[in-house]
Design brief:
alpha/beta; Immunoglobulin-like; 2 domains; six-stranded antiparallel sheet; about 35% helix; globular; binds adenosine-5'-diphosphate; binds magnesium ion
Length: about 375
């Protein structure tokens, strides 16, 4: 289980929007995800259409030192869809600021709660923490519970001012942690038409270097509309560019995750790709992936689309190409078309002869 805090003391930089949609896109890629709303404003909670009428247990009940035997975590967790859960909160969480003042080790309460998840047989691939816009006790708890932090930065003059403050905070947190927080930065609400966007991009890149995601979240009105409708962008507008941006982020994140976990790093990305890729069933269809740094176009054709090629999208400089075909099939034949040349899938070995004396790639899901 990896715990990722989405934090920046500045308000309005896209923390909540990123928490909701990054969670939804990790879930779209078949990960089991828990989103924890740590901001007493409850924006992740209402942005996902979840209500917390009086008497419903929320994150407050799990963390408050005055709730001696708090409810089981399972009673507070709300299931949004298959493998995507939320721990909601509301304004009651504000009280913790004061209540924690009476406690020793108050900054480790969220970490203790995370440990309780496994005790209650709740297992997740990722826990995403949507932090409030300040560096108070809740954010402090998040930075002590998390393995990693994603810092959303929206291009404005003021956002650059905050970077020094964040770096200072991270240094302080790291002093009391066993392993330092892994830092990622993400540009959000990016409008390339604005004159200073490029300048800000350069400055953020200089500050974070390769810890800045290559993926940029652009300014999309559909993200506001999705929040108003109480839905993630994956539910609200799966065809939108906004969904594509957040899906790109999830894919880039998972690639970084792999690179980090691989002991035999010299193996190279290409071999890793060959061992791990091939078509995958995801919630809305089948994800096709192809690896080529040099191709200028990659398409997919198979019996599911009557062999009419459809283009894959190039995700990154490493040469990852992807496309989701919205079908649910157990078996199918397919081929990739790389710069106009038809070829079988190099990343999975199953093939079948076709009527024309050649072979097609063949997939059979268990
Ligand atoms: N990429 C984006 N494009 C357009 N609007 C966005 C984008 N990201 C966030 N917003 C909007 O900006 C406002 C602040 O975003 P939010 O995610 O709530 O920030 P934070 O949680 O950091 O305060 C919200 O109204 C949200 O809908
Ligand atoms: Mg927020």
């Amino acid at each position: 289980m990896r715990i990722i805090a989405i934090a920046n003391q500045k308000g309005g930089c896209g923390k909540t929007t990123t928490s909701i949609n990054f969670s939804a896109c990790l879930n779209f890629l078949q990960k089991k995800v828990l989103l924890v709303d740590l901001d007493p404003q409850g924006h992740s909670t209402c942005g996902l259409g979840v209500k917390t009428p009086k008497g419903t247990p929320t994150l407050y009940d799990l963390l408050s030192p005055f709730q001696r035997a708090g409810p089981p975590v399972s009673q507070v967790i709300r299931s949004l869809q298959n493998d995507l859960d939320l721990i909601p909160c509301n304004a009651s969480l504000n009280a913790l600021e004061e209540e924690f003042g009476f406690m020793p080790h108050y900054h480790l309460k969220l970490r203790e709660l995370m440990n309780r998840l496994a005790e209650e047989q709740r297992f997740y691939d990722f826990v995403i923490l949507d932090c409030p816009p300040n560096l108070g006790v809740l954010t402090w708890n998040a930075l002590n519970a998390a393995d990693e932090i994603i810092i959303p930065i929206e291009p404005s003059f003021f956002s650059l001012h905050g970077l020094a403050k964040i770096s200072e905070t991270l240094q302080i947190v790291n002093r009391s942690r066993e392993t330092p927080l892994l830092v990622h930065a993400l540009l959000t609400i990016y409008n390339s038409q604005m004159n200073f966007s490029q300048e800000i991009y350069d400055e953020v890149r200089a500050h974070f270097q390769n810890r800045l995601f290559t993926t940029i979240i652009h300014d999309h009105i559909s993200l506001k509309e999705a929040a108003a409708a109480g839905q993630s962008i994956a539910q609200y507008a799966p065809q939108s560019q906004a969904f594509q941006d957040y899906l790109n982020l999830a894919v880039e994140y998972l690639e970084r995750d792999w690179n980090r976990k691989l002991p035999e790093k010299e193996l190279g990305w290409e071999k890793v790709y060959k061992n791990h890729f091939g078509p995958r069933q995801i919630s809305d269809g089948i994800l096709f992936q192809f690896f080529s740094k040099i191709a200028s176009s990659v398409e997919i054709a198979g019996d599911f689309n009557h062999w009419i090629p459809e283009p894959l999208v190039k995700r990154n400089q490493e040469g990852l190409w992807q496309r989701v075909i919205p079908v649910q099939l157990k078996t199918f034949r397919y081929k990739f078309i790389v710069d106009g040349e038809w070829q079988v899938d190099p990343s999975q070995p199953m093939q079948k002869e076709n009527a024309y004396g050649g072979v097609d790639s063949y997939m059979e899901f268990a």
